[in-house]
């Protein structure tokens, strides 16, 4: 299933994304919560699956008539992994980490598909980072790597736009990664049965104004999804709706000569095989 959160007629709605548009799930299944996070927390995915045939046959709202929201806009935790592709670590002059580089993002920093990433007034060093997202579907604490994928609700796409000058002001990356409306997230949450286990072996590409900038594969993750979930659950309780942003492949703007920065008028797209394409224009604050 491809689940989406969207705004239509002034109301936040839960959608099933199809080729010809998006179906308002709650119009067909009354009583469901409107947020994907609550669907996961209340363990309601099975109810949607039971009605999937009817939903697929239902009339869809045109994509042009909706505003996409992040699939999860109120996560308890947005956990980000740095240098999780060896080639990206190398292009930044760093060694491949022996333990994940972990930092957090705030909910205010994220935005949905087709919504503008905002370049702030204080910096023009706005870089792109196409990344695979994993969303947790049930509470996880001290889980084994062998069992970790049982806790996955689905996968999505992230463009972790980063202010590189602010990132380098500190040994910690948080400040450069948390400017308002710099994290594109979407367009949908794809449930695991649609993808290989752990979403491994998927092409991941980033385009800036239709120019290919990043060309990687999720099979090259230094710490694959199951390993990340197991390691994170040693430290913290993962809960339904928690978001893990798994790292970016090589090809980022700051590592190019000359560097490439996103600017107003640009359009950045991240495509992951089997999931879709996240697109965001760039605007000034």
Description of the molecule:
- This protein has 285 residues and is α+β, with helices and mostly antiparallel strands.
- The chain has two domains: 68 residues, no CATH class; 207 residues, Fumarylacetoacetate hydrolase, domain 2 (Alpha-Beta Complex), CATH 3.90.850.
- Helices cover 15% and strands 34% of the residues.
- The strands form three sheets. Strands 1, 2, 3, 4, 5, 6, 7, 10, 11, 13 and 16 form an eleven-stranded mixed sheet that branches. The protein has a five-stranded mixed sheet with strand order 8-18-17-14-15, with no helix packed on it.
- A hairpin with a 3-residue loop joins β17 and β18.
- The protein is globular and about 50 Å long.
- The protein starts with a strand and ends with a strand.
- The model has no long low-confidence stretch (mean pLDDT 97).
Topology:
Blueprint: E1 2-8, E2 11-18, E3 21-24, H1 25-28, H2 36-41, H3 45-50, H4 52-57, E4 67-69, E5 78-82, H5 86-91, E6 101-105, E7 110-111, E8 117-119, E9 126-127, E10 130-136, E11 152-160, E12 162-163, H6 164-167, E13 183-190, E14 203-208, E15 211-217, H7 225-235, E16 243-245, E17 267-272, E18 276-284
Parallel strand pairs: 5-16, 7-13, 8-18
Antiparallel strand pairs: 1-2, 1-4, 1-13, 2-3, 5-6, 9-12, 10-11, 10-16, 11-13, 14-15, 14-17, 17-18
Domain Fumarylacetoacetase-like C-terminal: 77-282
Family: Belongs to the FAH family.
GO molecular function: isomerase activity; metal ion binding
């Amino acid at each position: 299933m491809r689940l989406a959160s969207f705004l239509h007629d002034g109301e936040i709605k839960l959608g099933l994304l199809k080729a010809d548009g998006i179906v308002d799930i709650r119009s067909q299944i009354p009583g469901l919560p409107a947020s994907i996070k609550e669907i996961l927390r209340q363990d309601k995915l099975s109810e949607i699956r039971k009605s999937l045939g009817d939903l697929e046959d239902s009339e869809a709202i045109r994509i042009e008539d909706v505003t996409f929201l992040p699939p999860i806009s109120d996560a308890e935790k947005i956990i980000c992994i740095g240098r999780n592709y060896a080639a990206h670590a190398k292009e930044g002059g760093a060694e491949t980490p022996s333990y994940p580089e972990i930092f957090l993002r705030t909910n205010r920093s994220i935005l949905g598909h087709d919504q503008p990433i905002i370049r702030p007034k204080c910096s023009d060093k706005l870089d792109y980072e196409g990344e695979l997202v994993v969303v947790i579907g049930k509470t996880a604490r001290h889980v084994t790597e062998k069992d970790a994928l049982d806790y996955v609700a689905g996968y999505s796409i992230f463009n972790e736009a980063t202010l590189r000058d602010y990132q380098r002001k500190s040994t910690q990356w948080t400040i450069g990664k948390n400017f308002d409306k710099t994290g594109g997230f979407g367009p949908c949450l794809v449930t695991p049965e649609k993808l290989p286990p752990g979403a491994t072996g998927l092409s991941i590409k980033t385009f800036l104004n239709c120019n290919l900038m990043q060309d990687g594969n999720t099979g090259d993750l230094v710490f694959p999804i199951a390993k990340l979930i197991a390691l994170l659950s040693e430290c913290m309780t993962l809960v339904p709706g928690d978001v893990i942003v798994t790292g970016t492949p090589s090809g980022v703007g700051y590592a190019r000569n000359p560097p490439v920065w996103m600017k107003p008028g640009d359009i950045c797209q991240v495509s992951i095989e089997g999931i879709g394409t996240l697109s965001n224009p760039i605007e000034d604050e």
